[in-house]
């Protein structure tokens, strides 16, 4: 029997392996991206819940009896005070006693999203990232203190912050949280779902990209280009959201606590939410004025 040698172009050996190598990486990337988006969405829901918790605490704590807050006047908060109306040689968190109480109420739902201690040293496996021990609890509490800020804007969406309040008036409470991305690969380029510390400080270069695209396309396409990049910024990049969030994070309990995590090569995204409720006023102190703190007019 004469054996005929098949040509290489007809040889189908190993076709399954080749198809697997072609199909598997995109499927893996899509799965990891969906997993990271699910975690981010869960964190966003938690931040919204934290905003409502902080608002419910604020309407009770702000007009509360000064005797319960070290003599701190009612209807006032101090973002920079060492706290509580008393002098202390060491304070791990900033803000007056009233602000600390409100911040504690808002930050509690976010403890579960804090990174583990193993991530301070840099990249870890998924198993290490989601392990839990005594050191992880301490690291999570420290991170949440530094990554959670509570502010009181003059109005919803505003970037000027109040320090004094009036009886029975509506108060908007905003919670800003620095969420740590934990899923590997998709948090980095070219996906850019999350940002490193330098990326966040420098801002996303979407404005430069928008200008380049506008130059390449016809003049009539400018409104569509602007609309597309506005959507891109709102849903994926959030450049203005990022800048505003960084400004608000300076009012967190202790921003310095974020340094070990930033130096460990972690990547982040800023999540913000706010809620408005009327103050439950009481005659513990004088009616406040309309003081404000920093920000853009």
Helices and strands in order:
Elements: H1 15-61, H2 97-107, H3 126-129, H4 134-147, E1 148-151, E2 161-162, E3 170-181, H5 197-202, H6 206-216, H7 222-237, H8 239-249, H9 259-263, E4 267-278, E5 292-293
Antiparallel strand pairs: 1-3, 2-5, 3-4
Helix pairs in contact: 1-2, 6-7
Can you describe what's shown?
The chain is of the alpha+beta class. It has a domain at 18-82 and 92-186 and 252-293. The chain has nine helices and five strands. The strands form two sheets. The chain has a three-stranded antiparallel beta sheet with strand order 1-3-4, with helices on both faces. It has a two-stranded antiparallel ribbon with strand order 2-5. α1 runs antiparallel to α2 (97-107) and α6 packs antiparallel against α7. Residues 82-90 and 285-292 have low confidence and may be disordered.
Brief synopsis:
By secondary structure, the chain is α+β, with helices and mostly antiparallel strands.
**What spatial form do the alpha-carbon principal axes imply?**
elongated
- Major β-sheet annotation: 3 strands, antiparallel
Low-confidence stretches are 82-90, 285-292
**Roughly how much helix do the residues carry, as a percent range?**
40-55%
Please report the number of helical segments.
9
Q: What is the gyration radius calculated from CA atoms? A: 25 Å
Structural class: alpha+beta
Query: What's the arrangement of strands in the largest beta sheet?
Result: 1-3-4
Which whole number gives the mean pLDDT? 75
For the record, give the distance between the C-alpha atoms at the N and C termini, rounded to a whole number. Answer: 92 Å
What is the succession of H and E elements?
HHHHEEEHHHHHEE
- Percentage of residues in DSSP E strands: 5-15%
Oligomerization status of the protein chains: single chain
Tell me the number of strands: 5
